[in-house]
Amino acid sequence: MSLRVYAIAYLIFLYAPIALLPIFAFNDATIIAFPLSGGTTKWFGELMTNRALHTAVGNSLFIAVMTSILSTLLGVCAARAGAMYRFPMKAGIMGFIMLPLVLPEIIVAVSLLVVVVQILDLGLSNWTIIAAHVLICTPFSIAILNGAFQNLDPSMEEAAMDLGESRFSAFRLVTLPLVMPGIIASMLIAFTISLDEFIIAFFLSGSSPTMPVYIWGLLRFPQSLPVVMALGTILVALSILLLTIAEILRRRGMARVGVKDKGGFL
Amino acid sequence: MTPLITLKGVNKHYGDYHALRDIDLEIGEGEFFSLLGPSGCGKTTLLRTIAGFESVSNGLVTIGGKDMAGVPANLRPTNMVFQSYAIFPHLSVAENVAFGLRKRSDLDTKAKQTLVEDALDMVGLDGYGKRAAHALSGGQRQRVALARALILKPKVLLLDEPLSALDKKMREQMQVELMRLQRHVGITFILVTHDQEEALVMSDRIAVMFEGRIGQLADAETLYRRPRNRQVADFIGKMNFLDVVVRSSNDPVDLEISGLGRVTISPDQVPEPVTIGKAIVGIRPETLSLLFDGETTDLRLIDGVVDEVVYYGDMTYYDVRVQGVEKPLNIAMKNVIGRPVLDVGAATRVVWDERSLVLLN
Lengths: 266, 361
Known about the structure:
The structure holds two protein chains of two kinds.
Chain A: H1 2-25, H2 42-49, H3 51-84, H4 90-98, H5 105-119, H6 126-150, H7 155-162, H8 167-195, H9 199-204, H10 211-218, H11 225-257
Helix pairs in contact in A: 1-11, 2-11, 3-6, 3-8, 3-10, 6-8, 7-8, 8-11
Chain B: E1 3-14, E2 17-28, E3 32-36, H1 43-51, E4 58-63, E5 66-67, E6 78-81, H2 93-97, H3 109-122, H4 138-150, E7 156-160, H5 168-185, E8 188-193, H6 196-202, E9 205-210, E10 213-218, H7 220-225, H8 230-235, E11 240-248, E12 253-257, E13 261-265, E14 277-283, E15 289-291, E16 300-311, E17 315-321, E18 329-334, E19 347-352, E20 358-360
Helix pairs in contact in B: 3-4
C-alpha cells in the first residue's frame, strides 16, 4: 500500500512539471504564473511566424536525424561483431567504445572544440555537432542493439548462406528483419538524445544555433517565454507519439518472431 | 565406392589450437557417414570445413572432384541441418522451405510451390506450409530444416548433431526416419554426433575422432567388435579391460590374462600389431554371462562375487569381483523367466569365451 502511494507520488513529481507546459502554452499572459488569465492560441501562432525559431528547429531535426542514422549504423556493426565473432582484445575494445557513456559532456564539448578549431582548423557547422552527437549516441545504440543481436542464433545467417545467399543478402534477408525492433529503438533513442542535447551543441554550433541553444537564448527575454512553452508542448506531444509508434512496432516484431516479450525500452 | 568427398592432409589451426590434424578421408556417393567423438574432438569443425564455413589451414578438400579452396558455402553442393535448426522465425514454414529457391529464376511461382509441397510431404509435414515457423515443436522444426536443405537437391547433406535437442523417444523415431529419408533421396549424408549409439544405428561407416585426429574409420560392427585401441574401445559402448602378457604374437596368439589364465586367440582378434610383453584385452559385458543354478556350459568358468547390481528391466548389469582381476567385471545379463536377480555379495560363476576377446596395445 505504502509502495503504491510512493509510486504515485513519484510519478506526479516526475510528470507534473511537464503538465504545466500545455497549461501555460494556452494561457493569455506573458508572465508564467497562476492565476491563469484566459485561453489563447496566439503563442502557437507566433511559433508559426518566427523565422529564427524555424531555422533552429530545422537545424536540430537535421542533426538528430543524421545522428540517429549514423550512430545506429555504427551500433549495428559493433553489436553484430560483438555478438557473433571472437577477436583479440574484444572486452577492452567494447569497453572503450562504451566510454563516452560516462564521460562528462562538458569535457567532450571542450576537447572537441579544441580539436575542430585549433587542430583540424575547420569551421563550426551542423556537421561538427553531428560528429559529436554520434560520439555520445553510439554507446546507447550499441547497448540497445547488443540485446537484439545477442538473442539472435548465429547459425541463422550461416543457414541463409548455406541456402545460396551471399554474406550481405543473408544479413539483409534474415538478420535485419530479426533485429529491426532494436534498430528502430536505437534510432529513436539517438534522435531524442541529439534533439535536446545542449552543452555540446552550445560549444560546437556555428552561426546558426540548434533549438535548445535558441531556447536558452530566449530566456533573456521574458516576453518570449510563452512561445517556448508552446514549442515545448508540441515537442512533448511529438515525443509521446513517436515512442508509442516505436513500441507498437516493437511489439509487432516480437509477436511475428514468437519471442516472449521481456519488456522493451518502454 | 565412388568417392564424392576427398580430404587430403587437412589441418586447421585457431591460433595455437590445433583443431584438425592431418585428416585424410574419402566419403562415398550415397553413403551415410558419421563423425563421432567427444565434444571438442574437431568433428563439427570438420563438418563446417566441408560446408565451407571454415577454411582449412592447409590440405585439400574436394567435392565431386572439384577443389573447394576459396569456394564459399553458398556455392558448394552441400546443404546443412544445423544443431539449432536455424529456422527463420519471421517466415512461415513454406517460406522457410522455399528460401533456397530464391535464386532459382528458372522456376516460376507455381513450380516452386510444387517443390515446397513435395519437400514438406517427404518429411511428413504436408499441410503445415502456412504455419508460423516459431510455433513448431522441436521435431517439427527439424523436419522443416531437413525439407529446407533437401529441396535444393544437394550432393551432400550435412547434419550437425541434429537429434541432440530431442527427447529419447523422438530421437529414436527420427533415427529411423533419417535412415529411410537417406535411402529415399540416395545422396550422401554426413552426420556429426557425440552419441555412439546413434552413429552405430544409422551409419554405413563411422570415423571416430579424438583431439583433431581420426582414431578409427570403419563400419559399425568392426568398430564395436574390433576397436583399434583402448580410446576407441572405451568410447564405443562398454568394455572390460584386463591386463595381459603376450607370450607369442604369431598365429595362434598366446596370452596370459591376469586372473583368467592362459589362452590362445586368433590373429583376427588383434586389430593392430602387438609386441611380446604387456598389453590389454577388452571384453564386452554382453559376451560374458553368469552361470545360474541348474545351467551348464562348455565354455570357461571362473568364480566371482557380485559387487554391484544395476537393474534395467530388460537387462541386469552386474559388477563381479574376480580374484586376480584388478577391476570388477561388468556383465550384462538378459532378464529371462526363471533367472533370478542376484544380490550384492552373492557367490557366482562367470562364463567367458576367449573368442570374444580383442587384444589392444
